[in-house]
Known about the structure:
- By secondary structure, the chain is of the alpha/beta class.
- It has two domains: 31-154 and 343-362, Rossmann fold (3-Layer(aba) Sandwich), CATH 3.40.50.720; 157-339 and 371-388, Dihydrodipicolinate Reductase, domain 2 (2-Layer Sandwich).
- It is built from eleven helices and 15 strands.
- A nine-stranded mixed sheet has the order 14-13-12-11-7-10-9-8-15.
- α6 (133-146) links the parallel β5 (122-126) and β6 (150-153).
- α2 crosses α10, α7 (160-171) crosses α8 (205-220) and α8 (205-220) crosses α11 (364-383).
- The longest helix is centred in the last third of the chain and has 20 residues, at 364-383.
- The chain is globular, with a radius of gyration of 22 Å.
Amino acid sequence: MEENAMKSGDSVLNETMQAIEEKAIDTGKKVRVGIIGTGWIAEAHIQQYLKFPDVEIVAMADLIPGKAEKFCKTFGIDPATVHFYPDHASMLANEQLDAVSICTYNMTHAECAIAALNAGVNVLLEKPFTVTLDEAVAVMKAEKASGKILSIGFQPRMDPNMQQIKKIVESGALGEIYYIQTGGGRRRGIPNSTFIEKKTAGIGALGDIGCYSLDMVLNAIGYPKPLTVTGYTSNFFGTNPLYIGPDQDHTSAQNAARFNVDDFAAAFIRLEGGVILDFRISWAMHLDTPGDTVILGKKGALRIPSTECWNGSVGGEMTLYTDTAGLQTETKIPILKAQKPLFEMKIRSFLDAVKEGKPAPVPSSQILYNQAIIDGIMKSAEAGREIEIVIPEI
């Protein structure tokens, strides 16, 4: 009996960890790619694009003169092979592109994405989707009119552990879900540069890492529609020179003075289907973690350990709690190792969608609800009360 159970368990584990066959890359048609914004997140994009023989990086746009040219040289690209532009509009007007990576600061996500889609170009848009719900709706209207692909840059979706969470929920092992606690964050981990001012970022920790945390659980349960939210935000740490560091252009005091986004947020969200979502996220606090992620169902529960600095994965073995034959049981879910870097899989899945006409790997129709929650948290925090989330028709 024990031996059969062991074999069954091994079979399930082997199936989960089964290697994906390598698919040969068709170099007959190359994807002409432009990059909008050549800051630090663009480094991750270009490093992956350069791995693929079916990609031609033909154009770059950046507001800062000479920045894109320097960026090219840093990654061994001959600047003579790339056209450089002072903004996304001039690049889109003068290039025949198949796709763009939008790596700009949050406040320009919507503007750049809409322009690219209107120009008939497929878009990989870095997270967060946008700053506001209205912006997200406007982008999706452009997407619908263009017929092009819009994929949002949520590489944690590629993590096999994240996929395992979704499989566990879909297996029925937890039964009907009724409550979720999620979030995470950092004891100290405030970024700088364009992240800390509303004029560039729009939102702080909520948009930077909160969107990932929300996606982890919402994707697992099928992205039910958010109905209401009670939100709270604060920035006690970012505005204090003791807790925010200097950067190459500013002292700690200067960064504290210009800090005007959230460094902590919490919310109580009601979702369609009677699910309650208890959420919190942090760039800085006097705590190592605001708690593990917990998914409670009527048949079982899943605990997902938090990470020290929320990084889009899980912090250790997950635990499945169920009752078996009248006994309270706990099953450890082993950590799964990704076969390739998550960013590589994000870029490759986008390229395959462009070349083969596949759906967007991370569709805007899902992340719209993610953005609606973030938007609702900000509005509720400002109003000091619960608000209804109303999502316009697209």
